[in-house]
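Just curious: can you write a single protein's sequence together with how it folds?
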Amino acid sequence: MKDALNLVRRILASPPARLSALEALLGPLHVDFAGGEGMGSFYRPGFTPSAASVPLPRGLSSLAVRFGWARHHEEPTRRRELYLSSVDYQLDAPQEALERILGRSLGRGRDLVHPERRERWREHGSFYVLTDPGSLAVLRWEATRPEWALPPIDPGPRVALLEALVAALHTETTEPAVLARLGAHLAPCGVQASHPIMFSPDGRQSSISLLFQPALSLRMLLDALGWPEAIAYPGSVHKDSWTVLPDAGHAATQANVAEWVVHPELARWPRGPGGAELPEAGGWGPSPKLVLAGCVTDVGSIQIVPASVYR
């Protein structure tokens, strides 16, 4: 147990965020890029004879590592630095001892229940520890706060934000003016607003980006925009982002609100209840359009662009 708790102290003092830092802490992990371990995650002990035989330091019984991987633009077999998104350390120590050391080092923490897995966790900043009675001593580090751990947002302020957004789009003609109308509504809604650079034929170089954390109810957005029904289409051939359009007989190609074009993007692949697939409504070439009636996937962001960009 002493080895495990000493390892925990070292992790808390300087959590590794890259593979090189993780190996400096734990020793060589011998990631088998050529054998398929460069595609977003790897485990120790691993699933191949060589990965299963990689030694871990005393006090650590297993390791699960997840990292960023540009699936369509990065060669997974190339040896490279990995930027970690989360690490699970399963420790050879009683669960209660792990909870005590986190409490002394980081404070009481916040109790959470994973909404899908029904696991009980305690959040300490970027660290999470399982607290189900009799569970394994698992310490998780997350590079960014996971969606399931975000505090719930009162829907009332979000309804007010969307009403203010639609009103501003009907009356304002510049991006700063729209953002000024939204300013007081952003913080209570868990929304980050930005004014990113973009390139357009008419020389305008700005747009409005609204990032929702946690994600925004799709139905709430459709009601605010006055869209009874909607469809979604993938933003690229890779289908890793999905843009929402009003369902105007499946014929809409962009969503105009006054002199603006609105691009809501779903937080993930559109699905129905229980992960059910949604019906298709034709498509453009190989890219399908999906009917969003019954869709339970929320909206992760909204991009707003002057309509003049498309003229």
